Amino acid sequence: MQLGSSGVTVGDVIAVARHDARVELTDEARERVAKVRRHIDELAASDVPAYGISTGFGALANKHIPLEKRTRLQKSLVRSHAAGTGPTVEREVVRALMFLRAKTLASGHTGIRVETLETMLAVLNAGITPVVHEFGSLGCSGDLAPLAHCALVLMGEGRAVGPDGTERPVPELLAEAGIEPVTLAEKEGLALINGTDGMLGQLIMALADLQNLLTAADITAAFSVEGLLGTDRVFVPELHEPLRPHPGQKYAAANMLKVLEGSGIVASHRVGDDRVQDAYSLRCAPQVAGGSRDTARYALTVAQQELAAAVDNPVVLDDGTVSSNGNFHGAPVAYVLDFLAIPIADLASMSERRTDRMLDPARSHGLPPFLAEDPGTDSGLMIAQYTQAGLVSDMKRLAAPASVDSIPSSAMQEDHVSMGWHAARKLRQAVLNLRRVLAIELLTSTRAIALRAPLEPGAAASAVIADLDGRVGAPGEDRFMAPEIEAAEEYVASGRLVRTVESAVGPLN
Prior knowledge:
Fumarase C, Chain B, domain 1; 54% helix; 4% strand; elongated
């Protein structure tokens, strides 16, 4: 993959962060970066103060730094800003962070030297991962602490993990990869740490995960409808696009109708059923799932716009002017990170309600209590629903927005911050929780469907039950549930659930 004028896509970020795609700088980008650097060198030699070049930072911006102290200035900036604490952030987050920073550095708007940018790419390509901590970013002036921990490694300092996942001294890791540590010049410390890259990278990965999970949610909802003797008639297209033209709702309803196609269980009660309407958690599933889809689509638009940005302060304009700005403020990204956590919490909440309905003999239309083999002696899936309820409760807490909070910093110079990094961290947990909630609905609904025998399910449920081959969701005596839930989660996370259903009924939305 090449960094140059063609820009970076969401797929590029995923390829580098999760699949270790190599990144190279194009000749065009190299020339552009070198040309802009010459403007910075001229300013550095001038008597005119320039922020980040010949001055201090933040509230110390009015402090002029003499020429002989500027190398120390850059080192001091990175060292002092690498002040994170708490648990270590995931490898894929750090790789996305570094790649997206390199993308901005290659834009020719930051004043970085070519050799410094090349060193960052070399570290990325060598599979060396700086140790970045959970806490440290306020999502304004960029993700300062996380990026500073990465910049420190370029200097041959700090902490890092090698490609084998083992932490070793940074000089040893760099030497092994044939990488020379850099001595930062004017403006470079600031250019390396002043961006929204951490929160953007996490938004992109959350969207990639949700693409799979939103389709999986339609599948598990349809399986629950099947297991609960619900109707598929509420998912027919004439009830959706013509009457309420939200695209996500249309796609979710179409998915559910397709998954239920040919179900002998659904067909068995079309005549003689005295129920007028299914419960909301069944009947309104496309409306809730559709809202989640539409929110994700909007969030993707924001992510794509931010990918096209060159976030730094000060920034070098095309005419060579170096200008202060506020583009490092993470608000646009923070808002959608928060926004996404709301509909997926509701999606999980509806999933849990369907699970509970299948376990309650008063509402499950003939299923045994808790889907147990011998109710009383066996508890069935009683506590699996507890686990699901705990996950949903956590998601409701995670849906509280981070971006409405602001704690002033830097002696009131940075008096309003976005908390976008915090919004990103909680969204990652919310997405993981959703995956686990859907896994529990999957094992519950497949067991409920199996208990409807001799009635035959549709091709989708039949294919999934056969693919699981008794590992997940099969009726029987009580057994160790945790491994079964874990297996169901992996089945959902890997995309195998969606692929198995599509192999049986055709492509889903």
